[in-house]
Design brief:
Blueprint (H helix, E strand, L loop, with lengths): L1 E6 L2 E6 L2 H8 L4 H6 L5 E6 L2 E6 L1 H19 L6 H13 L4 H7 L1 E2 L6 E2 L4 H12 L13 H14 L6 E3 L17 H5 L4 H10 L2 H9 L3 E3 L4
Parallel strand pairs: 7-8
Antiparallel strand pairs: 1-2, 2-4, 3-4, 5-6
Length: about 220
């Protein structure tokens, strides 16, 4: 549990669990040092106690960010630089409550990876997938459409909301019909499905992903 005490220009934060505090602060207190990139503060750490000194707005915003990061660590996930950047962006720039940032994050059971939407459009995309059964995302390559969809699918499976995941992707032919290409249908379309595999293997280890595919929990169904 995080306990706060605020004075003018001073914020004291205490954590019940010293291991949670250490994970939150980061190796050699790197996470707290990184926050100074955004806020004009001074920080002092003693055990599981953190003291912030600075202007009222700076220490208040820093406290909100730390509260959000504390929620991530309590769930067993490590905090990295991208998590800090994301929390700061929403707490300070978007003026959202710290809890809203955590609500957007995608947790995959058994994985230490925490998936976080990095832009407003990605956030809206994730919200749509949570709300609707069918969601169509349109955008240029590299904007996270496939990656976030895979994250949501895996998270839903491990929460037992779905029993199977079907991966499908149009196999765009380049001069030859797929039927004339060598190999099985799986081998023919495998290059077209590479972005899906890349996302899958980034979120769960290869052995686990292979078992899911072999057991038919993840089914490959190309649109060819």
């Amino acid at each position: 549990m995080l306990d706060e005490k605020t004075d003018e220009g001073l914020l004291r934060l205490s954590f019940d669990d010293i291991n949670v505090a250490r994970s939150l602060f980061g190796p050699r207190e790197e996470n707290i040092k990184y926050l100074k990139k955004y806020f004009n503060i001074k920080a002092s750490i003693r055990g599981n106690h953190l003291t912030l000194i600075g202007g009222k707005k700076d220490i208040e915003d820093t406290g909100k960010v730390i509260n959000e990061l504390h929620g991530i660590v309590k769930k067993g996930f490590p905090v990295n630089v991208s998590d800090i950047d994301h929390a700061v962006r929403f707490v300070v720039n978007a003026h959202e409550a710290a809890g809203d940032v955590e609500k957007d994050q995608i947790y995959i059971a058994g994985s230490k990876k925490l998936i976080t939407p990095k832009s407003t459009n990605q956030k809206q995309y994730v919200h749509a997938m949570k709300k609707y059964d069918v969601v169509i995302g349109i955008g240029p390559a590299g904007t996270g459409k496939t990656y976030l969809a895979m994250a949501m699918a895996l998270a839903a499976y491990y929460r037992r909301e779905v029993s199977r995941i079907i991966l499908t992707r149009p196999a765009i032919e380049a001069g030859e019909k797929l039927g004339y290409l060598p190999g099985t249908m799986y081998e023919k379309v495998n290059p077209y499905l590479r972005p899906l595999y890349d996302a899958l293997y980034d979120m769960v280890d290869m052995d686990r992903a292979t078992r899911l595919i072999e057991r038919g929990i993840i089914e490959i169904a190309p649109l060819a």
